[in-house]
Every structure is written in structure tokens, then in C-alpha cells.
Amino acid sequence: MRDLEIEIRNAVKSDWENMWELLQLRGGTDSKELAESRFISMLQKDEHFIPIAIVEGKAVGYGWVQDYGCHLRSGKKLCRFHDLFVLQEYRKKGIASALFAEIQSWAKEKGATWLQWNANPTSTHFYKKLGFTPIPEEEEGFPFFEIEFKENLASAKPSGEGD
């Protein structure tokens, strides 16, 4: 099998129909109209990042991460990783890893101290394969993972500081 050429880019408004298909296959969606409204709103906010994976002109996966901002007491910034989904026929081809790498890069660029997520039990092996070890579960059945970006520990500042 030849290597796939994978393009990972920020989702844009014109990606909506492709995103809707992916969201439906991922599951847990409500109405198309409400999901579209949220998608468009998130695209316009700096605290959300939705990378999309394109192979041969087709959207085959997406991710979603959110900048939660600085912790009230510590001032350290947290990003929460919500979704990572790749179409079944495109799995095990490096697409999820490429999406996850973009999510990590985005969180680091945002100055995050931590990137946290709860994994779907069926995807836990994927994160372990990438070298991450789950922390005791917050939510039963959904292993908790956390990356601490050591280089961002000293530089995490509340937004507006120094203005």
C-alpha cells in the first residue's frame, strides 16, 4: 500500500458538511443546525482549535481542543482535549497521530502548562502506544491522561497580565 499524503489544517466554515458527516459517525450529536451553530462559533474563538485531516481531498478525521485559560490560584494554563476521530477505513495510517501532534503543538503555542483528556476506553491503547500512561480515572471507565509542558511552567501567565 502506498503512503497516504495527509494534510492537517484548521477547519474552516466551508468544511461544515464534511464535519457533520464525521460528527455523526463519531456519535453523540444532537441536531445538525445546533451542531453547525456551535462549529461556526468555535471557529471564530481563539480558545478553540479544530484541526481536520484531509486525504485525497476528503475529510477523514478531526480533533478538538479548548484553551481553558489560567487556573485561578496557580496561574498555570490548562488546555482540554475533547475529540479525536478518524474514519474507520483510514485508521492505523498515522492520521490520528498527526492530528494529535497538531493538538499538542497548538496547546504548547498557547502557553499551556497542561494538556488533559479522558480517553474513550477503546482508544486507550492508542495513547499508550504514543508513550502516555493513564492517571487513575476521574470518570469510571474513561482513563485520564495529562501532558505537562515543562518549558511552559514559568511562562504561563494570566491573559491580560502586563497590559
User: And the CATH topology?
Assistant: Aminopeptidase
Round the mean pLDDT to the nearest integer and report it. 88
- Biggest β-sheet: count, sense, barrel? 8 strands, mixed
- Shape descriptor reads globular
> Number of domains in the coordinates?
1
- Through-space gap between termini: 54 Å
Say which CATH homologous superfamily is assigned.
Gcn5-related N-acetyltransferase (GNAT)
Radius of gyration: 16 Å
* Distinct helical segment count: 4
Poorly predicted segments: 154-163
**Briefly, what CATH class?**
Alpha Beta
Number of strands: 8
What percent of residues adopt helix (DSSP H or I)?
25-40%
Percent in strands = 25-35%
Please give the CATH architecture.
Answer: 3-Layer(aba) Sandwich
In short:
The protein has helices at residues 16-26, 32-43, 95-109, 124-129, and strands at 6-10, 48-49, 51-55, 58-70, 77-86, 114-118, 135-139, 142-148. The protein has 163 residues and is an alpha+beta fold. The chain has a single domain (6-152), classed as 3-Layer(aba) Sandwich (Aminopeptidase).
